[in-house]
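Possible race condition, two jobs.
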Amino acid sequence: MTADVVDKVLFKCKGLPNFNQFTPQRIEKEFPVLLEKLNSDFNDIEAEFSSLINNEDLDWVKVMNPLNKINEELRWSWGVISHLNSVKNSEQLRNVYAKFLPNVINLGNKFGQSKIIYKALKILREANNLDLTRNRILDKEIIDMEHSGISLNESDQKEYNAISERLGELSTKFSNNVLDATNKWFLILENKSQIKGLPERVLELMALSAQKHLKKEGNVDSKVGPWKLSLDIPTYTAFMSYAEDSSLREKLYKAFVSRASNGNENNNQIIEEILTLRTKQSKLLGYESWAELSLSTKMASKTDNVEKLLEELREPSFKAAELELENLNNFAHKNGFNADKQLQPWDISYWSELLRKEKLNLDQEALRPWFPLEDVLKGLFRLCEKLFDIKVLEANGEAPVWNEDVLFFNIFNNSNNKIASFYLDPFSRPESKRGGAWMDECLNKNIDSEGNHIVPVAYLVCNQTPPSKNKPSLMSFEEVQTLFHEFGHGLQHMLTTIDLPQAAGINNVEWDAVELPSQFMENWCFDKKTLLNIAKHYETGEKLHEEDYEKLCANRTFNCGMSTLRQLHFAITDLRLHSNLSSYQELNSDEIRRDISKNTTILPPIKEDKFLCCFSHIFAGGYSAGYYSYKWAEVLSADAFSMFEEAGLENDQKIKDIGKKFKETILSLGGSLPPLEIFKLFRGREPKTEPLIRHLGL
């Protein structure tokens, strides 16, 4: 179907969405029709299951196929709305999303609290005549229903549902506040002294942004200005790293860490209410805390196991970070920083960049011309072709997109059969797109009711530096790593061989194992052959020099203590906020975080620092009591990559063989088996922490 043909039915719940037709007006008009259908279908399922139970005529097909159909229809339809709310946000869409969110939550609770469905699943499981994968799916479905309040009495169930609905509202409000607060703050700079030290690329970005903001016409002169300073990540990180004006860095830093903590966009009370409600809900379900509830379905299983891992990493990281800060202070004092003062948080990135240049002779900004997006993608695809025997081909125009910058690709196997597709939305759009980077499902691998094989389709979303008028998108090395990371998530979704959508790709994978493929792919950014195959100057075609590669490798462990400690601070704070808070008595979440920071930061948070107010991972995403997953999975990914290192990264045949094994286990099997079992199928043993410690240089 071409984009100019109007679909009679917007929510067709199959195939690729026709994004250009998903206007807030049509969603508001047509989504209620779908909700009514889904409710009717649900009633029919309950009636059918009741008959099957009475006649003792239950089997997998009769029970799971209709449940899968209705779940996929809800996931497809609400998934499109949620996706657009993240990448094409507007006041109208936001209002429509908020309007229907309670309906979706209530429908989910209705499914999760159906005694007839629960009974059917239990009977099917207790029969124990199915394979391991199907039994694992049933176990997950049953525990999900138990965590949805199926066993609660009527009064408790009513309270549970009210909490679920309220948590959904609060999460949405939290996310909107972060987006609005980020967009709200800006400064128009007109004095050249204010932009001293900034690379030309950044000045171009800021000048274009100022022109757009001030609604000026004509050519932009990045050397004359004006320039718009904002909290958009590409601008923020560059300014903090390169701007010589310390007072402006301070102002920008304070604005960034205090986002969504005051005025109309204030998340302070939202955080307290979220934490209170999560605790209430977990206790209703028989758990002491939200962390205990969350970990009951994760690989780590218990808070003690997580605390143990985080502490094993915290101690060496803290010692390394202290030494790094001391060295950074000494360097700064030798190079003009006031000898009577210590570095402040807004000084760290700036002086670190100068020290990096001196110590490693590495100018990260100067390397951007070697990483144009197009060439990075080509290199990434060549790597995947070598490792996983697939081909990735551009297919722009084949699928409707939500923004002109969005790219579309197909993936083929060695028999030239299409096995998957994905969208790539690479660039920052601060006015309408939430920050960060993520992978999400568009279509799951499946066999539909008519026997058609559905190939998986992924959304890959980044927020990297957009192209300027005269230059393509030139990526920082960190942005390259981010792209590889998200593509790793995408590979697990797209290369699955499991036809049961409940266990295909990332579905049914324990949350703390989901980051394994993504972090595994990041390791290839430091493989010599891979990187030199990618990096090519966008104007001259010159390949990256070997000495620059060596510098990037050395940079991997540069100030690694501080960066690791920062992640551990987030993870420990998240875990403690969602554990039994009685030990903290009357402290609020910010005070608890500051108490934790005594052992997890070397520069205590300044009074303006309200980081929790923009900690979307745990208050508006799926990482509550789960942020530790990044470090947990990093152990797995580093150990998995060490198998390639042990074989010799220059040995193409061995690399292909191990890549095939990685594909046939980690990427293929998805949630069909426990992640530890899959890991052992690949590695031949349980994971070890030594490779991660080595990679971190600790």
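Job #2 (started ~2 s after job #1):
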Amino acid sequence: MCGIVALVGSQPAATQLLEGLRQLEYRGYDSAGLATVTSEGQLTCLRAKGKLVNLSQRVEALGAPGQCGIGHTRWATHGKPEERNAHPHRSVDGGVAVVQNGIIENHRQLRDGLEASGVEFQSETDTEVIPHLVSAELHRRLQIGEQPSGSTLLQAVQAVLLQLQGAYALAVIWEKAPGALVVARRAAPLLIGLGEGEFLCASDTPALAGFTRTILPMEDDEVALLSPLGVELYDGDGVRQQRMPTLLKGTDHVADKREFRHFMLKEIHEQPETAALWVSRHLPAGLPASMPVALPFDEAFYAGIERIEILACGTSRHAALVGAHLLEQFAGLPTAVHYASEFRYAPPPLAPNTLTIGVTQSGETADTLAALAMEAQRRSAHPDPAYAPRQLGVTNRPESSLSRQVPHILDIGAGIEVGVAATKTFMGQLLAFYGLAMAFAARRGSRSAAEIQTLVDELRTLPQQLQELVSLHDQRSEALAHRFAETQDVIFLGRGINYPIALEGALKLKEISYIHAEGYPAGEMKHGPIALLDAHVPVVWIAVAAAAFEKAPSRAQEARARDARLVGGAPEGPHAKATKRPPSRATASPPAAASSAAICHAHRDVARRSLRCFPRRALLRGLSLSRFPRHALLRGLTLARGVGLRAGLCRFRRDILLLLTCRLSVVSRTRCPCERRFEGTKFRANKLEHPKNLRDI
């Protein structure tokens, strides 16, 4: 995922481009770059590896004049995160510059053809083929007598796009047409912001929020020519399009971190507000029992639905799994959840009277949109009206491509989320499925009015509960982070509705901390994961339901028998008080959607600091001496089996001497000889010789 920004107008472009890139930096921070062109045709291209601040310093030092320009922040896909692979990419003559978000699937064939014609590539990226192709097409057109202009650039880009396969959002400038900017999209988000004599194009709405509220979302295969005079929009066949712009919503605080260190932390603390807004919008007082939740659908929407299938990716899929549990167990509707990325390659058999729900926070997830389009197409081809497509989109962006693709939209209303790891939007998706489950339950009679009202009353108290939780999350997260600073593997467990939360907790840890983590159904721990447990592998147990909590102690004992450290997640309530909590060395209550991301982020920060400190590592080794005789004996016996008793015992004695030296190293704060002894050593994949079990030696 990368972010692009493009601007044409009458004001210096570099400042606005940098601000737009700052809003999109969450989409990629491997490198950043921009290119501008002056009215005299001077094209300047500046790039920098790493975060955006490096590019800002370079622009400040070298300057980037011009009123037309393009910018890019990169998440590496093709080519290492190096300056030479940073966007924009230029043609051989330097006259054309391009930024792109997406993957050009046939770039290898195009690259081979260009290299055969004498083009020398400067990068490893798939994007670099585009400026070379555009430059060649422009050169051909100039040779036949066409004049340099924005229209010439537009036609050249249109010709090149016919050669590209894959998904892309791109922007192109040309030094011989300094007042022109060409943008195009296919299966990747791109929006045009309309200003006063200025036009801004960006991958996502945060870059547009401070510029304008009037936007023109581009459709697949559309191409646009932007100039200070206006916007010319064309479809894939080259036909001019006329479409009314829309107003951007939910952008009031997108660029304001307030008192928080980063956007993600801010968005964690915005979860109570998200829940309160949802309750006020969908659970107002005075609703009849036949309609316990106010959703923007008429009765025809619910009529005749016998089955639900949900398409989603990543965090949205985990929310969908919670939704499937609610729809089946509370509303009595059979529900299946599919990976949107796999659905196109192995679609299930069609079933009649099926509602297809696409879940995507941004409304721009390419796999989800493609899966929805495929499902609509194959259902439309069926002659039986019972198989006709019925689709709903759950999104946080009502102005997105999803809202233009499906007939019904359920806006979670969480406001724009800048952080990559979903926090408040995950909460919003869960609440959306609670609303759908209650609406279907009321109409199908699967639950009594009293049962539904009980759930409504509990949801109305959710904002206050979340506020209490996030008020405590900082101190609890930091405490857990320090305790598990050296952890490299974590297992999350949950039952029933808690299992998707375990998956989400593991995903958060991987996304934010770069630590390996896996989520499992709690009952499956004994079928494989239990073999991985030892003193260095924490187990996070999520048990927020009565049935799940009753099963927790027995599984907890299995983990403790292997010295695993347990982190229990359970609410303060009658179930927790009535049931004996599983023994644990650390307790966090509860590490669900509201706190898991915060724990993980704090974990990352503390881990990165702690792992650089040798005296702390040595101290940990010294504190683990009580386990040494057992580990050393086992290792000695293992070595004896492999190399002979005498050699094994010699190594056993040597390890004892090394251990004693480690004790002295803690006091003297010198580098431990053990660190040098085992540095670069490869161990056999044997539990007894696993590096984690030798970490104390």
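The chain has four domains: 3-247, 263-460, 471-610, 620-694.
Logs attached separately.
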